[in-house]
Amino acid sequence: YSNAVMCHRLLVDKRNQLISGSPKVKGSHRVITNPSDFANFFQVSVNMIVNLQATVESFANRLIPNDVGCFDANAKEFQPSIAHKINTTLPLIKGKKIKRKESNYLRQLIEIRNEIVHLKPAGDVNSAYKIVYRKLINFKYFEVLQAVKTFVNFYEEGLIEECSCEKEF
């Protein structure tokens, strides 16, 4: 989680740099977007998304005992997805469920992380990844960052603390 927090400021700067250099932004004199601007943004955004998703999944795995099995309607055991763990298994084990707003942000995080990890071109060669790229540019990073913190602290109060320079030094 702390790595994702540290990425956030850099991500905001890289996204602003990418957008301000876009040929569709007033005042920009570029004909095309500088590929390194997008590469720099993409690198930081992927780092942040992967670290946030890893926070959620590793935390859920730590809270779910190894002997807890998941069974379908036919009583057949299955390996639960991360979504199943946070939406079904944890609420059953802990007796409480996180709010819908945070749950929606966690779902969006899992979905975009899966799209990145299983990235496949869609369409012609020149715009094969355009849909995923646009999702990354428009993704609600700060809101998701806060939702992950809320999720962790909901099930283990005070685990993620606000950073204080006095504590750090």
DSSP, total strands: 2
| Main sheet attributes: strand count, strand direction, barrel closure | 2 strands, antiparallel
> Strand content of the residues, in percent?
under 5%
Q: Give the number of helices.
A: 7
| N-to-C SSE string, H for helix and E for strand | HHEEHHHHH
Structural class by secondary-structure content: mainly alpha
Q: What's the Cα radius of gyration? A: 19 Å
What helical percentage do the residues reach?
A: 55-70%
Uncertain stretches of 5 or more adjacent residues: none
Gross geometry = globular
Order of adjacent strands in the largest pleated sheet: 1-2
The average pLDDT value, as a whole number, equals 85
Distance N terminus to C terminus? 20 Å
What does this protein structure show overall?
The structure is a single chain. The chain is mainly alpha-helical and 169 residues long. It is 63% helix and 2% strand. The protein contains seven helices and two strands; from the N terminus they run ααββααααα. The chain has helices at 2-20, 35-63, 82-94, 100-117, 130-138, 141-155, 165-168; strands at residues 70-71, 77-78. It has a two-stranded antiparallel sheet with strand order 1-2. The longest helix has 29 residues, at 35-63. 20% of the residues are buried. The mean pLDDT is 85.
